[in-house]
Amino acid sequence: MAEDWLELEKKAREWTYEAANLVKESLANPIHIESKSNPNDLVTEVDRAIESFFFHKIQNEYPEHFFLGEEGIADELESLGGTVWIIDPIDGTMNFVHQKYNFSISVAIYHESQGMVGLVYDVMNDELFHAVRGHGAYLNNEEFLPVKERPLHESIIGLNAKWLVQEKNAYRNPLRALVRDVRSIRSYGSAALEIAYVAADRLDGYISVNLSPWDYAAGLVLLEEVGCKASTFRGEPLDFMKPSTVIVGKPQLHKEMVSSYVGEEL
Ligand code: IPD
Ligand code: CA
Ligand code: CA
Ligand code: CA
C-alpha cells in the first residue's frame, strides 16, 4: 500500500506532542539515572518509557512498519527496507538530567532507505522542526527561509570541544584547525537539534566524531529540503546500520570542511 506521508507526519506529530507532555510531567519527580557504556553515557527511565510509548503506538497503528530506536526496545534491523520509524526518545539525555532543558525528541520515518518524514521537537522551548520529503521544512509551521552560504571564516559550527582534547580522538588535529579557522563554535548537547539548527540557518555546520542513526535520521530529512549536505568525515553517505563520524553543512561549507579538514585518510 502506498503511504500518505503527510498523514503519517500528522500522526508522528500528535505522538511527539503527547510524548513531550509525558517528559515534562516526569520532571516533577526525582529521575532514576543509570550509566551505559561509560560513566558519562546516561540513560533514565524516562528515555526508556518514551521509546516504549512510540514503539507501542506504532505497533498498534502500523503493525507492518519497522522500528529503530536508541534504547533497544525493538529487535535489531539489518536494513532500512520497508517503512522504518527511527526514534531517539530523548536526544540530549545529559541536558535532560543536568539542565532539564535543551533536549529533543527525534522522530523520522524512512521508506526503502529514503527519509520521508522528520520531526525534531525541542520540548522545553516548544520548537517543532518538521519536514516531509518534497514539501519543505518548517519551524512551528513556518517554512524555513533558504539557507545562506557564508565563507568558512564567517561560519559558526556546532561541535563538542571535548573532542579537541581527547588523546584517543584521531581527528583531534584536523578539528583543532577547523575550530581555529571558523568564526566560532557552539555546543548545545543535542545532535538532532544541532542538525535542525543547520537546516534552519541558526548554525552553518555541525560535526560529530560518533553518531548513531537515531541522532541524525530526522535532521537529514530537514537538511534535504533546504539543500544542505550530510556525510561521514570522508564525504561518504551515512550508513544507518552502524555508528559513524558525521559532518553536516551548507553545500559549499560542507565540501570545504571535508576536503580541507576532516576528509583525509588518517
Ligand atoms: C547524544 C547527544 C549529544 C551527542 C552524543 C549523542 P543522547 O545523544 O546527541 O549531543 O554529542 O554523541 O549520543 O545519548 O543524549 O541521545
Ligand atoms: Ca544516549
Ligand atoms: Ca541521541
Ligand atoms: Ca537518546
What would the keywords be for this entry?
alpha+beta; Fructose-1,6-Bisphosphatase, Chain A, domain 1; D-Maltodextrin-Binding Protein, domain 2; seven-stranded mixed beta sheet; five-stranded mixed beta sheet; globular; binds D-MYO-inositol-1-phosphate
DSSP strand count: 14
Name given to the CATH homologous superfamily of the largest domain: Fructose-1,6-Bisphosphatase, subunit A, domain 1
| Class inferred from helices and paired strands | alpha+beta
**Number of H/I helices:** 7
What Rg, in angstroms, do the CA atoms define?
18 Å
CATH architecture of the largest domain: 2-Layer Sandwich
CATH level 3 topology of the largest domain:
Fructose-1,6-Bisphosphatase, Chain A, domain 1
Strand-residue proportion: 25-35%
Indicate the low-confidence ranges by residue numbers: none
Strand/helix succession: HEEHEEHEEEEEEHEHEHEEH
Keywords: Hydrolase, Magnesium, Metal-binding
Protein name: Inositol-1-monophosphatase
Binding site for Mg(2+) 1: 70, 88, 91, 215
Cofactor: Mg(2+)
